[in-house]
Amino acid sequence: MNDDTVTVMSALPVVLLLTSLVPALLIFALREKQTVLRTTLNLAGAIAKVVLVIVLIPRVVAGEELRAEFTWIPGLDIVFVTDTFSLFFVALSAGLWLATTIYAVGYLEGSPNRSRFFGFFSLCVTATVGIALAGNLLTFLIFFELLTLVTYPLVAHRGTRAALRGARIYLAYTLGGGVALLLGVAWLTLEVGPVEFRAGGIPEVAEFAARDPLTATVIGAVLLLGVGVKAALFPLHGWLPIAMVAPAPVSALLHAVAVVKAGAFGIIRIVEDVFGLALFAELGMLQALAVVASVTIVYGSVRALAQDDLKKRLAYSTVSQVSYIALGAALLSPIATAGAIVHMVNQGFMKITLFFCAGLFAEELKLSKVSQLAGVGRRMPVTSAAFTIAALGMIGLPPFAGFISKWALGLGGLDAGQPWVIAVLLTSTVLNAAYFLPIIATIWTSPRSESEGSDEGTFPAPARRSGWEAPASLLLPAVATALFVILFGVAAGWDYSPWVLAQIVGEGAWP
Amino acid sequence: MTVIAFSDVDVLDMLVVAAVAVTAILAIAIPRRVGATIAFLVFGLLLALLWARVAAPDVAIAEAALGGGVAGALLVDALHRRQPAQPNRDRRRAVAITAVGAALGAVTFAALATVLSRLTAEPADLGPLALEAVERSGVSHPITAVLLNFRNLDTLLEIAVVVFAAVGAAALSRDRIRTVTDPGPVRRVIAVIIVPALVLLAAWLLVAGTSEPGGAFQAGAVLGAALIIAHLCGVRPARAAGGRALVLVVAGLLAFILLGGIGLAATGTWLALDLSWAFAAILAIETLLTVSIGVALAMLFLAAGSRDDAAAADRAADAPALGGAP
Amino acid sequence: MAVMWALSFVVPLLVAATIAALSLGAGEARTRARELVVQYAWLAVVPTGIVASLDDGALKTVDWMLFGTAIRLDEVGRPLVLLAVILYGIALAFVPRSISERPAGLNGFLLLCFTANVGVFVAANLVTFYLVFAAMSFLGYAIVVHDRTTSARRAGAVYLVMTVFGESAVLGAFLLIASEGVTDVLDVPAAVAASDARDVIVALLIIGFGVKAGTIPLHVWLPLAHPAAPSPASAVLSGVMLKAGIIGLLRFLPLGEGAAEPLWGGLLVTLALVGGLLAAVVGVLHDNPKVILAYSSIGQMGFITALIGAALLEPAIAPAAIAAAVVYSVAHGLIKGALFFSIQVWDLSRAPTWAVVVPQTVAALGLAGAPLTAGFIAKYVSKESLGDVALPGLPVVALADLLPWFAVGSTVLLARFAIAMSRRSRRRTAGKPISTTAWAVLALAAAAPVWWLATGFAPPLTVPGWFSPGPVVDQSWPFLLGIALALAAAALARRPRFRDARLLHPRGDIVPEGDVVVLLERATGGTMRGVIRASGVLGATRDALVERVRRGPSPMPTVSGVQARLGTWVVSGALAVAALAGALLFVVLAGGGG
Amino acid sequence: MTTLQLFMYAGAFILVLGVAATLLVRDLIRRLIALNVASGGVMLLLLALADRGDGEPDPVPQALVLTGIVVMAAVTGIAIVLARRVEQLDDDLEEVEQ
Amino acid sequence: MSAAALVLVPVFLPLAVGALSAVLPRRAAATLTVIAAVATLMVAVLLGIAVLDAGPVRLEVAGWAPPVGILLAADGLSVVMIGLSAIAVLAATLVAAADDHFAGGHAFWPLVGAAAAAVNGVFVARDVFTAFVLLELLTIASVALVALGGTRSAAAALRYLFVAVTGSLFFLLAVALTYGHTGTVDLARAAERADDTVIVGAIIALTVVGMAAKTALFPLHSWLPVAHPAAPAAVSALLSALVIKASIVILWRIVEYFGPLTDLAAPLATAVGVAGAAAVLWGGVLALRRDRLKSIIAYSTVAQVGYMVLLVPLVFTASDPQVAWIGGILITLAHGVAKVAMFLAAGALATAAGTSRLDGLEGTISRMPWTVAAIGLAGVSLAGLPPTLGFVGKWMLVQASLDAGAWWWLALLLGGGLLTFAYTARMLRATFNPPGDFSGARELTRPARTVAIVPLALAALSVVLGLIPWLLIEVLSAAPMGGGA
Asked: With contact defined as beta carbons under 8 Å apart, do C424 and C347 qualify?
């Protein structure tokens, strides 16, 4: 929110929230058999949100800010503001939620407890949109905790022993983070009064830091610790691979849209809109964050190498990729900030495609191990093509979205006078290549018989006659998001492309 | 601090206090139940005597009737019913517990004594204030004035305690109260002589309460005792159990609440009694309270003794109803 | 003109897309349509040919694409684009007739490669260059691994690993350059020269483009990839894709910018010389014609990098050296392409043997630099452009004198190639006359376009008279010496005593293909496995740690034990009395004082 | 040592004795007796405080004591009923949680 | 009816209805009690409005001024607490009316009336002796209610009776000391006249120990896990949510009035705080160990009591005691609402699944999603996680402890929340379907509709209050604690 934006009080932000809250509550009330009603509710909510976002983008880019607030306790309000950065994240969530909903409807065909699933599914996006629209640190905290609570039943959805164990560990990590965040927020609110996000940092916080730098640093560290758990920074990433127990649409949602992104969004909010980059650097926190992010990037990639389970490998890859965003946020240059912000979208679309494809492989051919994927290219060419596009994007090859953010982060690193950033980026690229390219190679080139497939190398025959390799509701989202990965890469120069929007947001943080 | 005759403490007080302390220790220390109960009864009576010494006649009567009487009846009845096998008491553990108890008790007593020693000796100003307000209370006896006018909310709540204790007890033993069928000659005589006397005493206490020591509680206790004896002696209508009795018990409480409502309507504040009709109101409510307390205490006793009465009353014939109920 | 450029890029992509779409579903109509499209796929290159010849060289930009893509056809790019058009055209025509299965897939990828390759030659800003360079490299993998044999997959794997490292190096260099604030390709050399991270950038550029241009330590993928790929693909791979590395070095190295680069220049030249020597020595020991040609390419690429190294050493000669490098690249492209095509023609075409052998020998002579051929002009022009540049290490020997020895080496190699070809049997199955004649024209008339190109570069380059005695003599002695050596070796080989001498009748097992690659493979395989094991160990220790913490001495059982004891009436009663005593005691003691 | 102090200390003694016994005795009826003794002690203390000066004693504490006695009677009543049920079912005296 | 007259309605109405329902048939008694609960709720709202306008509402019963007469006053705390009691009683009685299994017998109705009256009385009492009598009435009613819980509940009820009456006796001793020292039993006048620090210290100490026993604060908590599970579900809900609150409010009142008078108060308060901290940890750990639904929730109460007394030390140390007071009160309110929901839901699950052991509850999440959702949401509120009311209270207590620089309370608040959600998650996990059998087909006796709806409605209420708590806070700050009635 730089100074020339005009703030308009309006209920639109709340409507944005309701588009997924109302369906959620209604779906909870549905009986298991009312599939059609449930799907229509789901899709209606998702489409309504996307339409609203499309309506809002031009207005917000033109500098108009919508604000809705109501008092929580005297002196502290719950505030929703649609500034450029929040709308950016809402757009990401809305888009990917639509795709994931379609995918989930197809994926969970015939499985039990779907009302419960889709209810919590919509609540999860409500929480994510709430986090995005939060105007002050308190609202952010409320929805951040809500996200933890709402994703717990999703991870534990299947009810198997492993699912429950995974959910328990996930809960332990994220609740621990939530407690740290509560401490940080309460303490800062006590010292400085209600903490309203302002691009470039809040003057009161700056003057408080001048007064008492040690406490400011401690508060900053605690806040980062709080959001760091969800952003899967190095020591706190343990839950991500374990949460792979969840069904594929949940993993897709968790990794690409909601939880991990909320963590990264939180980091950027705290670093840029609460403390402000200059102050954060002055307190020495920025370098620390950069180092932690870099360590996570390399660690995530290294661990991904050793995973034979496809979803685990993607999980570790997420651990590494999200820290790109943290790294970008931790560099003192507008390009790096823009790079971090755009990577939220790029990583979102790429990772969700990968998970969709992983889900497709698991659903259609019951393959979940990388070693089993030999020669899948012939049996499921479209899915494999989508997987390849997304994987190449993750490595950061030019025509795809991943390159944009890697290029921006590289330039940002140099601009911020930290040349070692390039070394980190390059090692990460090589490591990414080391764990993605072999998959692509096995998918396309190695003949079927070589894999230890139980039958004599042939795949289970396609269940349907329509000639499609997988049900449309699973295939279309994967292909759509893959196309977006290309589009965001190729059309990065277009006025409303994520890269241009990210730059607009990035400049906001540099008054 | 006025000095009394030959020594600062009247020898009689010292005697009574010593007696009370000794009986208290006995009631606590005697391991067998029978001994403890007897000691407790004696303790109750001595306590009543002590209250007289402390110039609290009303309390003395109440103590004698409720503390010694009804509570005693309940306790004796409990003993009479059944003596559970004493769990094997290994000596060492018992000694340890008493030692710990004694030590902690001593410490508490010492601390409490020092705290009490800091209390001043002059009387509180509350007394005179209350006494001069008595004229405007509608009754002449200060205790009754406090109970039924100044702090009538306490009394209402206290009645509620008794009523709901009775309701609770009745619920817990609803199904097992039996009537006493063949009381035998001795009991019939008692019933004929004592029950009317007790009822008369209760009535007198009730009326006297407005001017001298007495009042609803004491009368209620005596009435309760009368009912219990009547029941034990085969007076069937005196069987304080079942719906009818409950109505009587609850009536007292409902009346009191109604009185509060009337007070509100008349004077604008709950339970306020206008001087003009204060006396009548107090007397009326006292009578109802007496009945209510009496029946409630009888119910408590019967509920407590319920199961085994059935055993005693297995002899067939129903005794002819004796004299009307009060 | 911009529309033409758009068309030139879109048409091949469109054709590739239709091939992909058609090959998706099954059905008779689809396969027949697909066959047709594959037959005429080579037409897709024509628009690029037209636009390349007519283009006025202006900068054309598409802002909304990537960070703003821009292309510009300058005099360095034009000839290479035309070379690409020719070679890709012929290759696309050859594929349907070649024996490789799934020709549609191959043609599709060739078309994609063509677009990327042309893009590399015309890219005008850093990001576009990196886009097309990366695309071309990774599409190259698809071609190399097309036959899906185990050797093809091994070659593909090595190619991929080398490409990834090359990519990263180029990306690193470009990021450093971009941070200097420059994007247009033309003013990159000046920026690099001026930047303080100059050495790092140059090093990264040399590594990055060295991989693609096959300079010595990074050449290992070449001898593996060429035999693995189908021959038309190898022709394109060797003829045009290697040139991408060359144009990279030409565009981005600080040639002719202020201070000389003795260190990097010297390094490049030495690597080139070693390359030339190694290529000749190892190439001879193989009997598979494609491997021999691969090593010959390594030698020729070494020659061009020597030119670039010289330009680094002596900035004055830069323009001449660049022009010479371009001429030599085009010449080598045309001839090497022709030779690779000749293998397929030799195998499959029904044309009489003499009709195949004559164009082949003319091409081989051209490669060796014999007079009246393209090679003659290229070598002469290069030697002239060098002037008296000498290696900083040994100033006594001028670089120009060393170059002829390249010619000796390549002549011996070509002799070896001829022997190997003679042993191959001819199956004479298919062969449309048009594509064979096109090949023949390419082989025979290679000299003309090269001569015309050299005159185009006249000012810095001096064009040799066809028959002027000086150049003819300079060029022919290395060629003749080579022939002599080959004949001597052949004579020796026929002697009964040496019938089974492995040295004289090599079957390619003394030095395995890609020579150093085996060591490299083992090394990368080792590190890869090491890293995987390390990460496994890391994961294991972390889990063990978490497990130990979780199973640590939990207070739980003791607590519920104590609660059980605490629960009895007596003990909880005692606690209550104790609490009372404690509280009152505290009050009295603490208060007592007050 | 004035009468007031005599009564007060006696009251305190009986109270502490009763409370300690209530909390430490396992047998239900003896525990109930101890409870009544303890309440007697508190009433004594209150009445002693009511009759401090030589004038008429303060009626309010006496009314309070009266109420207290009635309440204790009710409590004893219901305690006896419960004790009876516990003993009839020869329930485990040591009421620990199931 | 002037505002002052409203004060006694929450006491007399339930009492009258209780008395009537002793003699009326079950159906009539149930409807009457529900109507009384609704009426009390409305009166609470009216009182709230009155307090908002003119601060504390005072009522001199029977028209006599304090030293002689009894003063009752409704301030912010009383209004909020009467609201809680109305809601809790309404919920419990609705469920009990729907399924007699929850009530445990016909006597449930009169005794619930008595308990409600007593609790509301305690919230408005400003006279220590009246408070004593109210506590006794509450004890009698609660003990009888617990005893309704079937055969084995008599022993638990008796133990509860002894502990409660002993606690009351300690309090009666404090009343005696108050009268002895200040010559009056009215709180405000006594506070004005008290000057001897030792006696005031003794009064506070006795009240603390007495009330600690009655509200099951840590060292003296052993009776609660015995008594609450033994009682019928609706009774356990009322006991945990409401009955223990009466003694806590008396503790708060004594601290409010007598705290500032003596410097002995601060160390006593810290002792209470330490006991509270121990309670949170002890209760939490044991809740993780027990495998019966009701025992877990009972130990959760033991833990949450720790939080409720946590405001006592904070009031003395924080620079702005109001924040600590309001935070503590909101946490108590949140605990009340959540605990009723949790116990009723647990009762529903236990009756449906036939057992209250955790391992017997498999598959219930599919058959009774609303009930399990209620437990989940209630657990969230107990743990003080947003968006529930518990979070508001916890937020303010965290602010207060940060303000007071008391790190240990802070760690306790944060750690305690985690522990709370740990055992809630444990309960939730037990209800998931066994792998494979997705329909949770195991035939469960389907509970009545209201039994499923009421707990969820309460849980939803705690979320709504969590999002818009400012109304409650306005009422609480309109008549602040320590401001004196």
From this structure: yes
